[in-house]
């Protein structure tokens, strides 16, 4: 087998980050297996509640995805000037085809979801209670909910609107898709403002302002995580990382690596601030990529394995498609074994359901995602 690709300084795609995307998408899919099988009620006594929730709900995985997006978009927009129309065309063809296909499948399975939410023996667990309440809201108020979710603008809905319960996603992972689309709307302006010799200072100031905005948004009642004001600082952190990567790539061999201690000094308080290890996960991965002394490390070796690189390439399809497929698989399991336990159902989902998810993800990428991304690039007039 030929060796896995190695990251090149300034390369458009960095192999380790592609592998990281794959690992994060797999984490989210497995976490939803656990949630759909009621394992949130089975926390081992030796694992603290906060750590259990990090692992189970995969919040850190999605936050690292957000940082990765800021990193990638900053890199992209640092190239030759790209007009707004070309940028939005390419990004729209990146997001919407897979999103709309998975949204349509999830809406078609809404009745199946309601039956699973009622029939599962563990339907009284916390995750299922929240899911059941959300399904009731969607059934009763679907026109307003769907009207906002089709154009991926539902993250901008004010708290409590549409009434009575605010936004409830038909497709639960889609909260980060609306967040991504909102970031695309402002990213060209942010990158344009960050050009010039003082761009490091500008991005640092922007990070502080975004952190303050997140605090204000939380105090103002914005609880839906797909609102850009709550997560902009993560995108900015990715942009800062891209700037650091660019400067390290252009530095002479053996040059100073003084970024590490300030970055660690920032990551530790941020981990405490958001009660989330996403920043530390990102820092460790980023450090393994750009620090010469970490070349060939075990973490870097893992991220460049071919299965993870493939998962990274199809990670967006996997991230959205796994939900409706897992719900359908769970409905099938409950049809044949209505009294099955949560752990047993999770075992069947992992052994039989997850491989089906991966096969269908590959087909979705081949038949829909990749061709329409190519079309978007042609319409945009350049590689976006």
Descriptive overview:
This protein has one domain (15-380). The protein contains 16 helices and no strands. It has helices spanning 15-36, 49-57, 59-77, 84-108, 110-119, 126-140, 142-149, 175-193, 199-219, 228-250, 260-274, 278-290, 298-303, 306-313, 315-336, 342-380. The chain is globular. Residues 1-11 have low confidence and may be disordered.
Summarize, please:
The protein is mainly α and 384 residues long.
What's the main sheet like? none
Rounded Rg:
21 Å
Number of helices: 16
The helix-strand sequence is: HHHHHHHHHHHHHHHH
Broad shape: globular
Number of distinct beta strands: 0
Uncertain runs with pLDDT below 50, 5 residues or more? 1-11
Average pLDDT value?
A: 85
Which structural class should the secondary elements be placed in?
Answer: mainly alpha
Distance between the termini: 31 Å
What is the number of domains?
1
Strand content: under 5%
Helical amount: over 70%
What are the SSEs and their pairings?
Layout: H1 15-36, H2 49-57, H3 59-77, H4 84-108, H5 110-119, H6 126-140, H7 142-149, H8 175-193, H9 199-219, H10 228-250, H11 260-274, H12 278-290, H13 298-303, H14 306-313, H15 315-336, H16 342-380
Features:
384 residues, mainly alpha, 16 helices, 71% helix, disordered N terminus
């Amino acid at each position: 087998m030929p060796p896995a690709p190695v990251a090149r300084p300034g390369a458009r795609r960095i192999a380790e980050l592609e592998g990281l995307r794959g690992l994060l998408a797999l984490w989210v899919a497995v976490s939803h297996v656990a949630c759909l099988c009621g394992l949130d009620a089975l926390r081992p006594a030796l694992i603290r509640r906060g750590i259990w929730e990090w692992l189970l709900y995969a919040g850190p995985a999605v936050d690292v995805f957000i940082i990765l997006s800021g990193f990638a978009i900053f890199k992209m927009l640092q190239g030759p000037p790209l007009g707004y129309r070309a940028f939005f065309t390419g990004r729209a063809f990146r997001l919407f085809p897979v999103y709309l296909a998975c949204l349509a499948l999830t809406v078609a399975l809404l009745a199946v979801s309601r039956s699973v939410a009622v029939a599962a023996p563990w339907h009284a667990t916390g995750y299922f209670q929240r899911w059941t309440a959300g399904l009731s809201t969607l059934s009763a108020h679907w026109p307003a909910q769907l009207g906002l979710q089709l154009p991926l603008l539902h993250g901008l809905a004010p708290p409590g609107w549409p009434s009575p319960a605010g936004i409830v996603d038909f497709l639960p992972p889609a909260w980060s898709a609306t967040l991504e689309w909102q970031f695309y709307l402002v990213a060209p302006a942010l990158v344009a403002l960050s050009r010039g010799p003082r761009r490091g200072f500008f991005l640092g100031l922007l990070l502080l302002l975004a952190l303050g905005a997140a605090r204000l948004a939380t105090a103002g009642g914005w609880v839906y995580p797909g609102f850009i004001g709550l997560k902009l600082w993560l995108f900015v952190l990715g942009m800062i990382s891209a700037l650091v990567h660019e400067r390290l790539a252009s530095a002479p061999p053996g040059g100073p690596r003084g970024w590490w201690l300030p970055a660690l000094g920032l990551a530790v308080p941020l981990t405490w601030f958001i009660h989330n290890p996403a920043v530390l996960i990102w820092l460790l991965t980023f450090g393994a990529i750009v620090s010469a002394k970490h070349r060939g490390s075990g973490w870097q070796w893992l991220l460049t394995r071919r299965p993870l690189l493939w998962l990274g390439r199809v990670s967006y399809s996997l991230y959205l498609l796994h939900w409706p497929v897992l719900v359908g698989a769970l409905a099938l399991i409950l049809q044949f074994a209505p009294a099955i336990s949560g752990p047993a159902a999770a075992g069947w989902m992992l052994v039989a359901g997850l491989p089906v998810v991966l096969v269908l993800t590959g087909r979705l990428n081949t038949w829909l995602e990749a061709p329409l991304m190519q079309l978007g690039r042609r319409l945009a007039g350049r590689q976006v």
